[in-house]
Design goal:
This protein is of the alpha+beta class. It has two domains: 69 residues, OB fold (Dihydrolipoamide Acetyltransferase, E2P) (Beta Barrel); 134 residues, no CATH class. It is 44% helix and 20% strand. It has a five-stranded mixed beta barrel. β2 and β3 form a beta hairpin. α3 runs antiparallel to α5 and α5 packs parallel to α8. The longest helix is centred in the middle third of the chain and has 17 residues.
């Protein structure tokens, strides 16, 4: 990376008040740490925001910046939305390696968060879709028990989820979601929860008790 470079990324963790630092998921550099020199700018940042900044190399996997420009933020409208977004971001923080090119991870996170822009379209299928996004993240980063995906129908929708989340495919996604019922949602949720309990970072996850309630 050049000495100074303008990059965009999603804030996946904020370290204030302990230090003016954020963890940023970018396409070209993967997950990196950014120390924000302007504390007032850092205070305005929250996980889930898409931001742009000019970064200077500070050390291995770490950069500094003077100011940060907020480009977009997720369309959060409920406590359930807040919990889901923070759970996704927490998983990104703990399961995606530092500074490993992550164009797909960056694109997928953008697509997951776009679900919140179409809540009226998905209506009663929103909870299922949120769980499928979590399952897709785990699956594509090699962090899932393959037993979860032995169901051919589930494997199919997970494999095609990025395409189905594309703007022109929203109706096709809605039709596919209709193939699953509340029992399927419960099984998917329990499978994810049980897998996360075996993850090395399980004790560091703060959102699980809110996301899964038991």
């Amino acid at each position: 990376m050049p000495k100074d470079a303008t990059i965009a990324g999603f804030v996946i963790k904020k370290f204030l008040p302990s230090q003016p630092k954020i963890s940023l998921l970018t396409a070209p550099l993967g997950k990196i740490s950014i120390f924000v020199k302007n504390k007032a700018s850092c205070e305005k940042l929250w996980p889930g925001m898409l931001v742009s900044l000019t970064a200077q190399v500070r050390g291995e996997h770490a950069y500094t910046t003077d100011t940060v420009t907020i480009l977009a933020l997720p369309s959060i409208a409920s406590n359930d939305d807040i919990t889901w977004v923070h759970h996704l971001l927490e998983l990104c923080y703990y399961i995606i390696p530092l500074q490993s090119p992550a164009e797909n991870n960056f694109m997928h996170l953008a697509q997951y968060l776009s679900v919140l822009d179409y809540k009226e379209l998905f209506e009663n299928d929103l909870s299922l879709l949120k769980m499928l996004c979590i399952l897709h993240l785990l699956h594509t980063t090699g962090n899932t028990d393959e037993k979860i995906l032995r169901n051919a129908q589930l494997l199919e929708i997970i494999s095609t989820l990025p395409t189905l989340l594309a703007h022109e495919s929203k109706q096709a996604l809605k039709q596919n979601l209709a193939l699953f019922d509340s029992n399927d949602l419960g099984n998917i949720t329990n499978s994810i929860k049980n897998y996360l309990r075996t993850h090395p970072c399980f004790n560091l996850f703060k959102t699980i008790k809110f996301m899964y309630l038991s």
